[in-house]
Amino acid sequence: MRDANSMLWNIRVSQPMGQVELAERSGVSQAVISGIERGRVTPSAEQKTALATALRVPPALLDHRPVPPRVLAPLQRSLPAHARNRLNASLALGDFHVGRILGAGTFELPRVERQADPRQVAGLVRLAWRIGDGPIPDMVELLEERGVVCLMRDTQAIRRGVIGSWPRDHRPLVFLGARATRRARRWSLAVELGFAMMHSDERTAEAFAAELLMPHQDVDWQSRGLLGVEHRGPLSLLRVAELETEWGVPAEVLVKYARRIGAINATRHRELISAVHFIGTDTPDARGEQPQTLARAVGALVAEGRSRDQVARDALLDPATFRADYLAGSSS
């Protein structure tokens, strides 16, 4: 059985590359590769160099052992095992390399009672983090200011497009879907935080996320009049689009939450969901809500006289991989 702390296994699977292919590229036998990954074989210096060259990583990286990720959000059952392994390996490596640049860091979630109401917990988080009233301007910035590191990655294999690791002893790491819209990303991040706060099922995490992003008492669900005519009516598709823009939440999420808190009845809920699916309201965003923590840290190191390539090498990363996987989406 493979060792989850094996650096070789994590690098190979994250790329992804099979043992046979790695053996062919490196000249190291598959039996030796398997033995290394199981913790039963110690590679020679020549084998280590050959494997690192084939994997396009510094040989020194193979001397370390990453920490397996602590993923709290359940992955969809339809996700193949190889895709799950690749996500876990990528999170483990990401955590290792980020730690080489930023250090372990600290992060602490507000403490809440077990089985607490998710809407109350969302209110407590808003209070503890001094979010204030109204929409949260930037979810990525909110989490990064409190110690979470966010990276842009291709997470199309994941239904929500966001996946995170929440270690107990150092800063969390969250992968953001590079192709997601701003509203979808905000929602997925809030749900991810919901899993970390509630340690419960998806419905509970989503209830937390909805209340965090749009406190029910602050949302005006009723439709408004047109052309200055005073009129108040049931939630309309036009009003959904207005609220979507105001609160930065996908239309379908708005409609479902309106039903959950009793702002609309079951019939209106079905009508609006059908209209949202048929018409669609969310559109891709050019930029906005991008990770900045790592880019700023690298910028500070560059200001001290180190090159970005040197920062990459110190993190045991190939410079090209560093730019593509760790600085993508930032302003650095």
Describe the structure.
With 332 residues, the chain is mainly alpha-helical. The longest helix is centred in the first third of the chain and has 22 residues, at 81-102. Strands 1-3-2 form a three-stranded mixed β-sheet, sandwiched between helices. The protein has 15 helices and three strands. The chain starts with 6 loop residues before the first helix and ends in a 6-residue tail after the last helix.
Protein traits:
332 residues; mainly alpha; 434 Repressor (Amino-terminal Domain); three-stranded mixed β-sheet; 15 helices; elongated
What would a concise description of this structure say?
Helix content is 50%, strand content 4%.
Q: What is the average of the pLDDT values?
A: 89
Q: How large, in whole angstroms, is the Cα Rg? A: 23 Å
CA(first)-CA(last) distance: 41 Å
How are the strands of the biggest sheet laid out side by side?
Answer: 1-3-2
User: How many structural domains are formed by the residues?
Assistant: 3
